[in-house]
Amino acid sequence: xxxxxxLFGSNQGDKLQLLEQxxxxxxxxxxxxxxxxxxxxxxxxxxEAEEWFLNVLLxxxxxxxxxxxxxxxxxxxxELGRVRHPEIEGxxxxxxxxxxxxxxxxxxxxxxxxxxxxxxxxxxxxxxxLCELVPDFLHPESGLSQQQLLEKCHDTSKVYVSLP
Length: 164
Hints:
Blueprint: E1 2-10, H1 15-29, E2 32-36, E3 40-42, E4 53-62, H2 66-79, E5 97-103, E6 108-109, E7 114-115, H3 124-133, H4 146-152, E8 159-161
Antiparallel strand pairs: 1-4, 1-5, 2-4, 3-4, 3-8, 6-7
Helix pairs in contact: 1-2, 3-4
């Protein structure tokens, strides 16, 4: 079993319901949900949008290889209404976005998966929930803990724990 760290986000539709549904699907199709972070509200990163994101970090133990895990995550995205527009460059609003941040402590480079996520050190909205659950987990390439990555992060976007 490999312990994976998956970040889910939504800024369209019933964000909470979509994330809850995604969590259920992942638990049923990808592996065992071990732990989940608080919910976080975050400004859109890398593009302009009126709606902020709701994010949650999941810790999942899986027997799936990285490519199969990604295929299942993409299937879940489609089932929950995510439409990708290849003609549009950059980021856009979406019903749900499911990212593999870490596939255990492995460095993965396939046509489908890059783990650790290449932009993780630049994203406060990903580092904050990681620091909540695994602040001492070491990035397998840099050797820095999640807490150290957050302290070095230059991202100034607003991210805060969502109130119930």
